[in-house]
Amino acid sequence: MENRNIIIIAVAIIAVIAIVGVIFATGMLDNKDQVTTPFKTAFMEGKFIGNVTLENDTEEFMHSYKDKEHDITYNISTVDNSSALMDIYWLQGVTNPEERSVNGNDWNIYFNEAVPGNETNNTNATMNIVICQSQGEKQGYLIYAIFGPDSDVNSTGNEFGATYTDYILPLLKTIKLKESSNVPAINEEFGLSESEFAEQIDLIHQYQAGNVSALG
After folding, report:
1. pLDDT for residue 169
2. Which CATH homologous superfamily contains domain 32-184?
3. What is the pLDDT of residues 151-170, one digit of tens each?
4. Can you tell me the distance from the alpha carbon of 74 to that of 132, in angstroms, rounded to the nearest whole number?
């Protein structure tokens, strides 16, 4: 009888371990009481962490949202070629993205810092900016998360900081990317023809490859 009880206890322990493994694997221990704000546009939908309000949707393919409690601004947009846009940002120092696959979407995630234009004399007034970029077959998608100078979020500007683990990653886990019509052309955003824009991108690629005279 004693051996039988030991076997029953061992089986029960194994079952508990298996259940715990499923819980961690599926994220069932996530805080179900955590406040989220759903959003839906023609090209993207998902859930922000916290109480987030729509601030501007006058442009069909660019929407702005605000978490006033934590001083976080989210700008989401779509364009035909988001990769080319990131090539342009590369010239401005936005480099070395973290590559992540989340919820079936491949993202390049850039971490950067900036100083608000009206507070350049205040060295403590910095903004942490996270750019998430994904290029699909027909269009690209962009999420800009700006943690303002008054944000109480841990401002470590990389994947190990709260900006990413507590806000960006949970958001990306909910994102659904959708194909939409009449997507803005990136060349038109810069006031260039397709050939003119392609020429500029080619020069950037040459510069990236080491031809420093390409942009001279």
Report:
1. 96
2. Mog1/PsbP, alpha/beta/alpha sandwich (3.40.1000.10)
3. 999 766 667 789 999 999 99
4. 11
Q: Using H for helix, E for strand and C for coil, what is the string for 113-132?
A: EECCHHHCCCCCCCEEEEEE
Q: Which residue has the tokens 């949707």?
A: 57
Nearest CA to 168 out of 68, 47, 78 is that of 47
Report whether 148 contacts 127 (CB < 8 A).
Answer: yes
pTM score, whole prediction: 0.80
Per DSSP, helices labelled H in the chain are: 2-26, 82-91, 162, 169-172, 186-189, 194-208
* CA dist., res. 204 & res. 212, Å (int): 9
176 strand-pairing partners: 45
Is the distance from CB of 199 to CB of 190 less than 8 angstroms?
no
Q: Give the relative orientation of helices 194-208 and 82-91 as an angle to the nearest 10 degrees.
A: 50
User: Coil, strand, or helix at residue 144?
Assistant: strand
pLDDT digit string (tens) for 39-90? Answer: 999 999 999 999 999 999 999 999 999 999 999 999 999 999 999 999 999 9
Hey, where are the domains in the chain?
1-30, 32-184
Tokens of 131: 């750019």
